[in-house]
């Protein structure tokens, strides 16, 4: 949805955060986009309606994102969402709401870095060809959730690909692990989280067969790396009504 001058009016929620401040700057420098509202915690959501926003970028916190997106849908505003906290039940409720607003689109992206999206796709494509698969994600210590949304999504894609190909679970003789050293398990795939000062966002998919290993790694050294995907989402969302889970839904990734 754009106005008569082909300018898309954008609101950013969570503009005081690290990602939110980058999104504000990205929108302001992107041709064809106009920042009309920037909201922080406690600000009235009605402000985005009064400002005439056509697309809302939500980079808030898990406790707020569902309410924010529900509000946007009810007001006919598209949502580009980078906030985690969307489980299967929440996604099903979102799809039910979107069915009542067939012209509205919602993009929920675990990661907006194009390289990270490609790494997830490559991991999914390779998963069925290796006996073992694990995921390691490394982030700054201020990150609130573990495992990261990207890691959980990657593991889910790997697990699904392996099941469809009839590949057994990764071999693992572990019998005792009282402190959880083997990490979380997402769709049958072990996921390990590292929190370390100096990191931004990094992830490895480790795939192994007898005599060989494939490592698929992506590194974001600066949060500006996520802004290409954020702007892509804002530009393309009007072409994708309904729910899209993952930026790859807006990219031609026919591998």
TrEMBL record:
Active site: 139 (proton donor/acceptor), 143 (proton donor)
Residues the entry annotates as binding NAD(+): 14-19, 82-84, 109-112
Keyword field: Amino-acid biosynthesis, Cytoplasm, Diaminopimelate biosynthesis, Lysine biosynthesis, NAD, NADP, Oxidoreductase
Record domain Dihydrodipicolinate reductase C-terminal: where: 115-243
Localization (cell): Cytoplasm
Gene3D superfamilies found in the cross-reference section: Dihydrodipicolinate Reductase, domain 2, NAD(P)-binding Rossmann-like Domain
Keyword Cell cycle: no
Residues given in the record as (S)-2,3,4,5-tetrahydrodipicolinate binding sites: 140, 149-150
Family matches, as PROSITE patterns: DAPB (PS01298)
Record-annotated Dihydrodipicolinate reductase N-terminal domain positions: 9-112
EC number: 1.17.1.8
Positions in coiled-coil regions: none
Chief localisation class: cytoplasm
Domain of life according to the entry: Bacteria
Bias type Basic and acidic residues, positions: 162-180
Annotated region described as Disordered, given as residue ranges: 162-182
CDD domains recorded: DHDPR_N
Pfam family, one: DapB_N
Top-level EC class as recorded in UniProt: oxidoreductase
Similarity comment text for this entry: Belongs to the DapB family.
Function: Catalyzes the conversion of 4-hydroxy-tetrahydrodipicolinate (HTPA) to tetrahydrodipicolinate.
Quaternary organization: Homotetramer.
HAMAP family in UniProt: DapB
Entry protein name: 4-hydroxy-tetrahydrodipicolinate reductase
Gene from which the chain derives: dapB
């Amino acid at each position: 949805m754009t106005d008569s001058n082909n300018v898309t009016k954008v609101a950013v929620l969570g503009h005081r955060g690290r990602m939110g401040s980058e999104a504000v700057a990205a929108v302001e420098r992107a041709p064809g986009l106009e920042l009309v509202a920037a909201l922080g915690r406690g600000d009235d959501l009605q402000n985005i309606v009064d400002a005439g926003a056509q697309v809302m970028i939500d980079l808030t916190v898990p406790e707020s994102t569902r309410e924010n997106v529900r509000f946007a849908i009810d007001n006919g505003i598209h949502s580009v969402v980078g906030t985690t906290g969307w489980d299967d039940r929440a996604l099903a409720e979102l799809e039910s709401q979107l069915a009542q607003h067939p012209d509205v689109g919602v993009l929920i992206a675990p990661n907006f870095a194009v390289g990270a999206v490609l790494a997830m796709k490559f991991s999914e494509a390779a998963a069925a060809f290796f006996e073992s698969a694990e995921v390691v994600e490394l982030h700054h210590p201020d990150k609130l959730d573990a495992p990261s949304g990207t890691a959980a999504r990657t593991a889910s894609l790997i697990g699904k690909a392996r099941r469809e190909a009839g590949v057994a679970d990764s071999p693992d003789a572990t019998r005792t692990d009282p402190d959880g050293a083997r990490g979380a398990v997402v769709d049958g795939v072990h996921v390990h989280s590292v929190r370390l000062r100096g990191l931004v966002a990094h992830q490895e998919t480790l795939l192994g067969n007898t005599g060989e290993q494939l490592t698929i790694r992506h590194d974001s050294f600066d949060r500006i790396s996520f802004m290409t995907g954020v702007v892509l989402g804002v530009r393309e969302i009007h072409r994708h009504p309904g729910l899209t889970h993952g930026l790859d839904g807006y990219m031609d990734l026919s591998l």
